[in-house]
Amino acid sequence: MPVLAHRKILGATRQAGGSVTIESAPGRGTTARVFPPVAAGAAHGCGPGMGSAIGTAAMQGVNVLYVEDEPLVGMATTDALESAGFQVHAAPSAEAALKLLRERPEIELIVTDVGLPGMNGYDLVNEARRLKPDVKAVFVTGYDRAGTIGKLTADAATDFIDKPYDPEDLVRSIRRLLQRQA
After folding, report:
1. What burial letters (b/e) apply to 107-127, b meaning 16+ CB within 10 Å?
2. Do residues 38 and 26 make contact, with C-beta atoms less than 8 angstroms apart?
3. Which CATH architecture has domain 49-179?
4. Which residue from 41, 36, 45 is spatially nearest to 16, judged by alpha carbons?
5. With contact defined as beta carbons under 8 Å apart, do 50 and 44 qualify?
6. DSSP code per residue over the chain
7. β-pairing, 19-25 with 29-35?
8. Tens place of pLDDT for every residue, the chain, 182 residues?
């Protein structure tokens, strides 16, 4: 399909209130997922951000700090989170994330890649919890959880999602975490 056709599909989908996620890896190709908007009154569970006890309306105003050093992954995930109704504050590094957390006290949840250059995602969340003890965190990882992260477990303020992930799975993970009592 010509590039112009791709841009028209992307533009029309976003303009209508839908979203598009794009994943690309050298030697593996590119996958684009188009999520058209859900019609008013449609059943839950029909697209990113749909379904679960906390619906899109409840996500409006929930501030999420998203930390990812890979720009394409970051853009696609930011789009999916915004489509789910989150207010997303994106940072390309742990250091930038901590600066945002200091500037934005309304942030209540951090979604972070574990394997960040410099300060890793675990150290980021530990430091973030010194600044804001009640902040919740979702760790995104491609690492084997039986290894280094095996000693860390999900609790009322922490969850994990494995890479590669579907943006809808990340949204569901965030919703579950927000529903838990801290």
Report:
1. bbbbbbbbebeebbbbebbee
2. no
3. 3-Layer(aba) Sandwich (3.40)
4. 36
5. yes
6. --HHHHHHHHHHHHHTT-EEEEEEETTTEEEEEEEPPPPTTPPSSSSTT--SSS-HHHHTT-EEEEE-S-HHHHHHHHHHHHHTT-EEEEESSHHHHHHHHHH-TT--EEEEES--SSS-HHHHHHHHHHH-TT-EEEEEE-S-TTTGGGG---BTTEEEEESS--HHHHHHHHHHHHHS--
7. antiparallel
8. 444 455 556 555 655 566 666 767 788 777 776 666 554 433 334 344 444 334 454 555 799 999 999 888 888 888 889 988 999 999 999 999 999 999 999 999 999 998 898 999 989 999 999 999 999 999 988 776 555 555 566 678 888 888 888 888 899 899 888 887 54
CATH 3.40.50.2300 residue window(s) in the chain: 49-179
Distance, CA of 59 to CA of 53 (rounded, Å): 11
pTM across the whole model: 0.67
Give the Cα separation of 11 and 34 in Å (integer). Answer: 11
Q: Provide the Cα torsion 7, 8, 9, 10; round to 10°.
A: 50
Other C-beta atoms lying within 10 Å of the C-beta of residue 149: 16
115: left (phi over 0), alpha (psi -120 to 50) or beta: beta
